[in-house]
Amino acid sequence: MLNANSPIPLYYQLKSYLQDQILQGLLKPGERIPTEKELGERFKISRTTVRQAIGDLINEGLLVRVHGKGTFVAQPRIQQHLGLLTSFTQDMEAHHRTPSSQVLQFEVLPAPPPVARALQIKIGTAVIMLKRVRLADGQPLALEIAYLPEEPFRPLLDLDMSQRSLYATLKAHFGVEPQRALQQMEAVACPAEEARFLQVNKGSPILHIFRTTFDQSGRPFEFVESYYRSDRFFFTIEIWSR
Ligand code: 16G
């Protein structure tokens, strides 16, 4: 029951209650929660108060609203540790999900300025561009556009990258392993084309990530621009005082 005499606002009490139910697994992923009207009646609060609590939980990714159907408990997000240099395949396997990719583009093109800068090559040098939708259990989670120098990686073009890990392939065929990476992230409104591939609404919040990865000898071997669904990922990093 909510406490009308508490200094904690009613919407916040309801939000905490629902949050608790989700975290304890009493409300399960995919389950429909009661309507605003039902919650209002059950807790003797106004629909505006209910709406505020639910709106917050939608914004925080714990609930999803499906137009015409109701509000549902969201699938748990994938926890990703930002301090670990891993591949998409490794991340999904760690979460017991089956990774796959839809290859959208795989070709050689002249390096545009930001790619050339990251890979420390001249603008216009031939690079391989691999554009993939990355899926887990068949659901699109990210869109990645990777650029690698054509030399020595040209033989990659003969391989089917829809069921392969790029990092595992680079290790097996070229002895190249990621040793460190520089990663930058920003939140953006999802552009139309990316939204279509990721099956999200155009303009919904999405993480735009850039990664330059260096091999064992310190040479940059990939520059990747990606869009990660912010409703499917949760990022963690441990930080230390000086
Ligand atoms: C990750 C990397 C990406 C890399 C890919 C290789 C980020 C933002 N990006 O998704 O740079 O190319 O893994 O994955 O984490 P794969 O080995 O499964 O093909």
From TrEMBL:
Taxonomically, the superkingdom here is: Bacteria
Which Pfam families would you find in this protein's record?
Answer: GntR, UTRA
Residues forming the HTH gntR-type domain are 8-76
Q: Does the keyword Transcription apply?
A: yes
Q: Which UniProt keywords apply?
A: DNA-binding, Transcription, Transcription regulation
Q: What is this protein called?
A: GntR family transcriptional regulator
Lineage of the source organism? Answer: Bacteria, Bacillati, Chloroflexota, Anaerolineae, Anaerolineales
